[in-house]
Amino acid sequence: MRTNTNFLLLSLAVLLTFSACKPEEDDPVAPAPPPTNEEEVITTLTLTFTDPENAGNVRVMRFSDPDGVGGTAPTITSDAIPGGRAYNVAIAVLNESVSPATNITAEILAEDEDHQFFFEVTGGAALTMSYNDQDSNGDPIGLSTTAVVGAAGTGTLKVTLRYQPDKGAANVAAGDITNAGGDTDIEVVFPVTIE
What is the rounded radius of gyration, in angstroms, for the C-alpha atoms of the chain? Predict the structure, then answer.
């Protein structure tokens, strides 16, 4: 009788051990987090102003920070712009800290719905920027613009690239950054001299 009791206790112990080791099938599996947008390193921002009536009349505004944030201060240069005309403006965005340089302009075009440039003119610079390009939803991007340049004067042009702005918010499609939200990828203030 004692043998049967010992056998019964041993069998019960083995059964409890195996049932305790059984994996829980009802445990929910945590979903993988969504991939984060890897922030691009932007070392160079160039605005090229071209007179559509005189292809030789090209003026450039350029921001360059080869070592990125920190370290050596960036270099910002601006050509004086003859007034009284309109210019086609093309923006180029690069990462020149690597070789060969990365053309971030192409990446902005590939993710056009998630990017928009904003332009803010201050001081006595008679300069008005308007969008010439659209994303796949018909909202502005700003890689291609028209600059209408007026009378002689000086001021500044602040160029801001936003990632995931709310392009449907009030006045954002018209170029007003106030309600845009999103993250700033780069922001540069260029001096403007109109001749």
Answer: 29
